[in-house]
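Office hours follow-up: a student asked to see two folded examples consecutively, so here they are.
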Amino acid sequence: MSSQVLNELEARGLIYQCTDRKGLAELLDSGPQTFYIGFDPTADSLHVGSLIPIIVMMHFQRAGHRPIAILGGGTAMVGDPSGKTEMRKMLTPEQIEENGRGIAAQLARFLDFSEGGCRLINNADWLAELRYVDFLREIGRHFSVNRMLTAESYRQRLESGLSFIEFNYMLLQAYDFHVLCRDQDCRLQMGGQDQWGNIVAGIDLIRRIQARESFGVTFPLLTTANGEKFGKTAGGAVWLAAERTPVLDFYQFWRNCEDSEIEKLLRFFTFLPGDEITALAQFADRGINRAKEILAYEVTALVHGHAAAARAYQTAVSRFGCADPENRIPTTSRIREVAAAATAELPTLELERSRLAAGINLVDLFILAGLAKSKGQVRRLIDQGGAYLNEARISADRPVSEADFSNDRLIIKAGKKRFYQVVLK
């Protein structure tokens, strides 16, 4: 059933609100439907926050529905007040056009734009031609100012100041939905939860003018465990363009997520099966780090391609080590192959079994591998919390035993970037 996509998105936590869940399910089951999501070209690249709407579009398109990606060349001239504490910087038409080209190229990586597939439409095609007085008479008369002021996007800006041009944004977005419903038979709009008021306004406008039923779905706005907006770092936004956020930095952003966030992020940002995600989220210690590697690899592959993701993974392993060098933790065959190749390139120390049987301490092993020049240096490293055995911090010197090896391999690491795999011979 075509409405199964709703069940899938709900299971992944990707649906925050729906105007009429039952009615929408019936519509989707009646045959392929057209839906749209808007992207205002306020920059020449999308960022991590844009991935949720993109992934939802991918889910719907894979279920047989027809996406429309609206490039907000018209609405970007006004500026969306939703989720903003102050008015956006006004962009020139030339800047908006240039930004639109960059975003269009990025969307083509994720969605099928072949004949009968996704359509990219610029709302400047109809908004730029509007005659203001006619627009007020035909569209503005359907909007109540009192009701508009109850919208969260407006209420939170009243104290800091809401410009008149921003106040018009809801009308323009509602008009977009009306035009798309009228001309493209598009009856579903989706967006972030901060778009709820704008989406509902469009549904009401369609009902008043066209006497048709339409639907709205919103996604949750993702925040970190600390309540901060997801996709922000000390260096600013995490962009989808490699020119703005290098691929390795993009990979490391996901690799360094909080342990408590891993299951949610895997459900939101990958297409891995739900039962596999549940299994990965149960791991602890090295296992949870392996789950983070899988998350980072899968999202990087989605955005930048598998070859770039493999290079980022291998570079990260060469600098920081591998969470699961023996590939013991069940995962996708794709990353198992990449992990095996990366592990094969790790700097390696071959240790004779007779040497192990005769007795060798961790301190001696670090020196033998060339990770330190003296026992004192290794002990200082241990005291400072910078010595690791198989991803676990070493608290004191002790003999190395067969139990430390898995498949005749172990990993020792000094600090964050220097490590060796030790192989028994």
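And the second, which I mentioned at the end of office hours:
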Amino acid sequence: MAEITIRGITKIFPGTRQPAVNNVDLHVAEGEFMVLLGPSGCGKTTLLRMIAGLEYPEAGQILIGERDVTDLPPRRRKIAMVFQSYAVFPHLTVADNIGFGLRMRGEDKATIRRKVERAAELLQLEPFLARYPAQLSGGQRQRVAVARAIVMEPAVLLMDEPLSNLDALLRLHFRAELKKLVQEVKATTIYVTHDQVEALSLGDRIAVMRQGEIVQCAPPMEVYDRPATEFVGSFIGNPPMNFLRGRLERQNGRVQVAFGEHALHAPPALAEHAGRDVLIGIRAENIEAVTQPAPEALPARAEVVEPLGSHLLVTATLGDQLVKLLTRTDFPAQPQQPIYLRPEADKLRWYDMETKQELASV
């Protein structure tokens, strides 16, 4: 295992003005599972390819352990990479695919056999070692690609959306297998995905990227519960975090945020921001819905009611703003009928309207 340190890495592709990766700093601890998460084009795969040595940065430094590998070719970085496509050799058996890198490295046959069998055991591929890729399912082929990477016993394991070609049920199953595998092999891992569920379930930490920069890097539940920006809250969560427009005011010695004729109490720490327009972030599961007026409940109107098995997803209007909330399946919500919304006060997040950044004093 080895830690990874990235300092000021920048990548600009020819013919473009906007950097694909812009002055990124990141530290991945030894044995950590780091997820790079973001929408298409945010720079996460480019950053991964620079760590792998497949792209060369315009500026910055990459260290694996204490070695500066910025100028080293991929083969000298002690890394292994799993690509989005399976990239298995169709003319080789599963055993030969897994052991390919070991043969290129000049390992003896007994060592190759032992390491291949161990990797096949970890990936549950022992019954398929004599088969060819055409005789395997998509999930089995992806496991072959992962086995081929871990059999090299790399200091660093890099994965570029390895589950994106699998169907939903297979992805769910393989995700659990992958998490268990990485814990067993204890490899320092960087995993690229645009799937927030993968990021939340797999990562020790998540680095959320946007337009070539890391906008938040934190443990999964911190990213989910306390998104640093409106973008992070909007990108992570299904449904995404609600963001309501309001204005902070002082009334009778208290701080509140006004929604037309109605208001919510705000934390006293926000008194210094009185008079400022803000965004109030709240997750759908942190809004209680009631059918009658109640203290701290805002009057709204149900617009769409969607049964989702274990709960209802209700889209409501609060003045001229839309709000999504999750409630119990027996809640008597009907389209075009009034309901009352009571957000959990300690789950409210406060953001500056202009910068979209969380207000630092909260």
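Two things to take away from it. The mean pLDDT is 90. The first strand starts at residue 4 and ends at 11.
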